Amino acid sequence: MHWLFRLGMLLEFAGHGAAGISLKEGWVRYFAVFGFDKPMIHTLMPIVGTIDISLGVLGFVSPRRWALVWCAFWGLMTASLRPIAGESFWEVLDRAGNYGGPLAFLILSGWPRTVGEWTAPIRWRPAARATLERLAVILKWVTALTLIGHGAYGALLQKRDLLDQYSRAGLTALPLVGSRFTPALGWIEMTLGVAIAIRPLRYLALTACVFKVVTELLYPVTGYPLYEFVERGFSYVAVRALPSAPIRDAPTGEDRPMSFRYQAIAKVAWAVLAAQVAAAPAPTRVVPAVPNAAVDSIPHRADSTLVGELSRGGFILFFRHAMTNWNERDATEGGNLANRAGQRNLSEEGQRESAGIGVAIKALEIPIERVLASPMWRCRDTAQFAFGAYDTTGLLFWKSPTFREARITMLSTPPAAGKNLVLVGHQDQLIPIIPGLRRDQLKEGDALVIQPMGKGKYRVVTQITPADWARLAGVAPPPTIESAPADSTPGIPDSSKARTKPETRRPKPRLMRGAEPFGPAPPLHPAPDVCSRVNRLSASTCPRSHRRRRAGRAEPSSSPGSPRPALPS
Known about the structure:
The protein has a 6-stranded mixed sheet. It folds into 2 domains: 2-279, no CATH class; 299-477 and 521-550, Phosphoglycerate mutase-like (Rossmann fold). By secondary structure, it is α/β, with parallel strands linked by helices. It has helices at 2-21, 28-32, 38-61, 65-84, 90-94, 96-109, 115-119, 129-157, 160-168, 181-198, 202-216, 218-221, 227-230, 233-241, 260-279, 304-312, 348-363, 377-387, 401-412, 466-473, 528-535, 544-550, and strands at residues 316-320, 368-373, 391-392, 420-425, 447-454, 457-464. The model is unreliable at 248-258, 279-296 and 480-569 (pLDDT under 50).
C-alpha cells in the first residue's frame, strides 16, 4: 500500500503539471478568479505545472510529510476554485482524490512528532491496526465522494464534455438504453458511491476500482490528452487500496473475502455490460483521403502559395471563435441560446482579433461564398466583426450523431466554383471528425483550411492563426489590451496613472445584406440535399433564411443586434 500511494503521487501531480505546461485552456478561468489577465495566466501556467511535476516526482522517489500536507492543501484549493469560477460544486467531490489521497498517505506514514520528521524521507514500516482503520475511513470517503461527484455529471447535469465523450465511444448508441445511457450510468455510479459510504463491502470496492479505471480510460481512447487520465491517479489508488484496508463485510466485524454469490452477480453484471459495448456501433469518425494520424501531422503552412489556392476557391475555412472572457461561463448548455448573459463572450481583444482577420481576408481578396456561425454569441460576434453578414445554423453546435454526420457531409461538399465557405464554430464539433486534432490544439481565433473531396471525404490542408492572416496581408495585427500608454517609457510601468480595464464592446446592430465586403450573398451552403437530410429529424437545423427562401420568402441576414428565437434543444 505504501508504494501504491507513492505511485498515486507521481500520477496525480505529474498529470496535473502536464496540463499546466500544455497551457490547458480550461485553466484560464481558474487563474482569472485572482484577477490575472490572459498573458499573465499563460506565463504562470508552465511555472505551476513545473512545480506540480516536481512534487509528483518527489512524492514517488523520496516522499516527505511537509510535501504531503502541501499537496493535500493544493488539491483542495484547486478543486474549490471550480465552483468559485462558476462551475458546479460536484467538481469538488469528483476531485476528492486530489486532496484525500495525500492526506491518506500522511495518515499511513504517521503524524510527525518532531520537526525533523517533517523533512525526513518517509520509509515503509508496518502500520498498526488502528492506523489502518483510520486509513480505511479516509479511503472510503474518497472513493464515495469521487463516485458521487462524477456520477452527478451524467445523472443531474448532463455535462457536455461527458456527453461528447460517451458519444464518441459509441456508448450513447447502445441497444435498449440509447441516449439514456449517460443519465443511467450516472445514477448507477452515484448509487455505488452511496453504498460504499454506508458500508464499504469488499466486492463493492472491487467493482468501483474496475469501474473507475475503465470509465477514465475513455479520455485517451476518445482523443483527449493523456494527462486527463493520468492526473486522476489518486482516484485509482484510493479505490484499489480500499479492498486491502481492514474494511468490515459483516456486523460481526470479520474480514471476509467476497462470497461466491456476490462474485457470480458481479461477473454477470460485467458480462452484460461487455455485451452491450460489443453490440454498439463503432464511433463515427470520417476517414479523410490523407488521414492525420497524429497531432503534428496537421501542417502549419501560411505562405503565398496558400493564398493563391484560396483565391481560386474550393476550400472551407473553419474558424474557432476568437478570444473570450474566461471569467464568464456557459450557463445555457442546450438551453436558451439567445441569452448572451448566460454565455462566455468575446473579450475586447477577441473583437479586435476578429476584425483583424476580416481586414486581412479582404485585403488578400479571398472570395467568400457564405458565412455560417454557431448560434452561440461568441461565434456570432466573431462572424459579425470579421465578415459583417452571416447566418446561424445548429449544424455547428449540436453534437448528436445525426448532426455529426451532417457536419461530415458539409465538410466534404465543395462550395460554389471559385468561392470558399466560412464556418465559425467550436473545437468540440471538430475533434470527433478530424483524426489527429486534440483538445485546445485549435486555439481561439485559429482556423483550419479544409479541402472537400466529396463522398464523405476531405483533407486538412493547414492550420492558420490570426497573426498569419495579418502577415500574409501585410497589415498590422490588432493592438492588444495590455499596450502601454503613449506617454510612458517603453519597458517601464507608469505607476503614476491609474489604468482601467477597457470596457468590452458589443457589436452594433447592422444589416449588411448587399453591402457586405464580399458582395451580395449567394445561395446558402450547404446544398439543399444536405439540409433536407437533417430536416427529417429537426426542421430547425438549417438556417431559417434557406428554409424561407425555398418557400419563396426571403429573410434578412442575422446580426447580433437583431432578436432571434433560440434553437430548440
